[in-house]
TrEMBL record:
Gene Ontology MF term list: 3-oxoacyl-[acyl-carrier-protein] synthase activity
GO biological process, one term: secondary metabolite biosynthetic process
UniProt keyword list: Acyltransferase, Transferase
Beta-ketoacyl-[acyl-carrier-protein] synthase III C-terminal domain location: 271-358
InterPro entries in UniProt: ACP_syn_III_C, ACP_syn_III_N, Thiolase-like
Beta-ketoacyl-[acyl-carrier-protein] synthase III N-terminal domain ranges (all copies): 126-217
Protein name per UniProt: 3-oxoacyl-ACP synthase
CDD domains the UniProt entry points to: KAS_III
Signal peptide coordinates: none
Length: 359
């Protein structure tokens, strides 16, 4: 028995923001980096989805993390030809839950009107690797025979964080906090994606479904941290003033260590599967930025036309990246029965994984 994808959906708020719009909103950086021209040349990101209205200085309503997740999930269930009552498990990965408690999966469960005997749980600290982790969990749970139809959701929301900083009344403090958030504003996009997976009786490599997985973690040299709000640094006036309630990402560490881990993950699953790299038809991998994605693909010898790319348009979609890429690939008509797809992602704490699936 294997797990296969039978439905997909996504929700990208209809607001593409240019580098110039962000550059005009933020204070001038103290160095030549993090300007509109620098971002396009060094990162290859031209626009990104963002629900914050940079002209009015407010976030557009109706596009919070749970809103986008609910819409994507609804679309995926419909695409699978199912109704909410048919789902018997929910796995939800997000780095930007609306609340620390309750679990965001429970909130989406409620909005979808799922049965009370349907368990729902979220992965809220894995970061960009969250979606490949819940795919692996879904595969294991379906193979065990415990669940038949599992709903997977990945989402990210950055607009509310910009709203919070923009609302600071003291002009000097506001400017300081804006400069601390300029990196996230340029890099990340917003949106959600969902998949519905079910059991497939065909157990051989030729039938549809997940055939191989490779997962791991390396907690040292962590590149991303959200320092305050947990039990080590509970929220206080001082933690807010210091700007500790945001994603603090070491881009230097990501660039230094990320490619090595990513290439190792892809190499290991290829080795484990016995499949040649050129036998993979499509690569759906996490997209930190366009230039890094292209460089890693070239280092691995992967033709770039086999790699699904949207980071230059949507920004880094974090846990929604893989789901959005799969849905767009499917809707483009380029995904054919019998083809192989390789999913791979790396997250905070260097939690990583790769999956090979037959369509």
């Amino acid at each position: 028995m294997k797990a296969k994808i039978i439905g997909s959906g996504m929700c990208l708020p209809p607001f593409l923001v240019s580098n110039e719009t962000i550059g005009n909103f933020f204070p001038q950086p103290p160095t030549q980096s993090w300007t509109p021209k620098w971002v396009e040349e060094r990162l290859g990101i031209k626009t990104r989805v963002n629900t914050f209205d940079f002209n009015l200085g407010v976030m557009r309503s109706g596009y919070y993390d749970g809103d986008n997740a609910f819409t994507a999930a609804t679309n995926a269930i419909k695409d699978a030809g199912l109704e909410p009552k048919d789902i018997d498990r929910v796995l939800y990965a997000t780095s930007t839950p609306e609340y620390l408690i309750p679990d965001p999966a429970c909130m989406v469960h409620m909005r979808l009107g799922l049965r009370s005997d349907v368990p729902a749980v979220g992965a809220t600290s894995v970061g960009c690797g969250g979606f490949v982790y819940i795919m692996d969990i879904a595969d294991s749970e379906i193979r065990s025979g415990k669940y038949k139809k599992i709903l997977l959701i990945g989402s990210v929301s950055v607009g509310p964080y910009l709203q919070a900083v923009n609302d600071i009344e003291d002009p000097k403090e506001r400017e300081e906090q804006l400069l601390k958030n300029i990196v996230n504003a340029y890099i990340f996009g917003e949106g959600a994606a969902a998949l519905v997976m079910e059991a497939c009786d065909e157990s051989d490599d030729l039938g549809p479904g997940i055939t191989h997985t490779y997962m791991g973690a390396e907690g040292h040299s962590n590149p991303v941290i959200f320092e305050a709000g947990g039990s080590r640094n509970p929220a206080t006036y001082q933690t807010v003033k210091k700007g500790l309630h945001r994603f603090n990402m070491s881009l230097g560490l990501v660039k230094l260590k990320g490619p090595e881990i990513f290439m190792r993950v892809v190499s290991e699953i290829i080795k484990k599967s016995g499949i040649k790299l050129d036998e993979i038809d499509h690569f759906i991998v996490h997209q930190v930025n366009y230039n890094l994605l292209k460089a890693i693909s070239e280092s691995l010898g992967i033709p770039f036309n086999k790699v699904e790319v949207h980071v230059d348009r949507y920004g880094n979609l974090d846990t929604a990246t893989l789901g959005v890429a799969y849905h767009e690939l499917k809707c483009s008509g380029r995904l054919k029965a019998g083809e192989r797809v390789l999913f791979a992602a790396i997250g905070a704490g260097w939690q990583y994984g790769a999956i090979i699936m037959r369509v």
